[in-house]
Amino acid sequence: MKSMFKSKFFRFFIIILALIFVLVFIKRDVIFQEGNPIPLAIAITKLTFQDVEMVRVWQNPDQYIVKQGNYEPFIKYMEDEGENYIGEFEDGFLFENEKGNVTSHIGIKSFTKYYDLIDTPY
Length: 122
What we know:
This protein has about 120 residues and is α+β, with helices and mostly antiparallel strands. It is built from four helices and six strands. A hairpin with a 4-residue loop joins strand 5 and strand 6. It has a six-stranded antiparallel sheet with strand order 1-2-6-5-4-3, with helices on both faces.
């Protein structure tokens, strides 16, 4: 009878697991640059596999993920919340929304090659 530790599958599994841990440790600055990457990964997964155009990031209700350059769903959402869309700044990375006498600037930054991260100031 073979021991569990002597099976080829178990050895292969341990080697793969060790490689994953080493890669995560080496690339930890990139992986954790936005904090915990799991909520952002879940949002990107929902955006990729579900029929949605914008996803609110889990555990951070002030962040949204959209496909790169597709800001229309966010603009519509802000208008539905009662804010008036004024336009983009010259650099194209901020939106200005006016609600009453208060003007708020909403930052947009490229998160990956395919997705943008929108940070609301609320």
